[in-house]
Amino acid sequence: MSSRVSIVTGATGKIGKVVAEEIARQGKHLIIACRSLAKSKVLLGELKSAHPHSTIESIMLDLADKRSINKFAEIIEQKCYIVNELVCNAGVLCQYESQSKEDVDMSMAVNYLGNVRLIERLQRSLAHDAKILNMVSSIRWGTISGDPFHPEDRFNRFRRYASSKLALYAYTQHLARKYDNSNISVYAVDPGIVNTVMITKGKWFEGIADIFLSPFVRTPEKGAETALYLLTNRPQTTGMVYHDCKIEQFPADMYTKEEWSQLWDNTQKYLAENI
Question: Given the DSSP bridges, would you call strands 241-243 and 246-247 parallel, antiparallel or unpaired?
């Protein structure tokens, strides 16, 4: 018998954990998808202890590794799970310039290509009324012009992160158009600046960020509010960025149709060559 499941990637992170805890509290069949087996084991134990009547399991997932993504999707298919909710929360803010095994900028490999590959691989497992939530932030400072898979500009981790999230936002809009005549809903979620390991990692935060960012830094609970709102409700306007439980307005020219077309062509080519 098929089971409808809710998947949260990056569930051991602070925002992911808040979302996972609420899903478990509601008694849904929860799958926490994490890269670290040790951390996922700890979280799994905590969730099962707090919610003994909920079905909760952990499946390893590394968005930087195509084999891991393919294996994850295969497990979902083999167990005949129907994906009711997919919260793509996992992400990376690289401290140093690095590339994936496929020689792609690591920020793009994880935050964009990893999520695209995961969603595309799970297409056959999606419920007819599934919800897909893609976590995006800082997209105002991103760009998808040129070749974002192999950027030639001087490394700036915030700009690389913002560009990868802008690409994910563009993909979210692409999915919304694809599913426009269906009951599948796709949303982009901006949690704001949240006090997570991703943000605080690095000595730079101890001085500069404490002064300039502290007034704007949110708790993980506040950062997760919009995602939880979208899981509970189903706004008719899809493909847009939601922040503080409402649509966040962005300039219409954040990226052009030509830039997205080029990026999507490159994405499809990359996925076809790296099955």
Answer: antiparallel
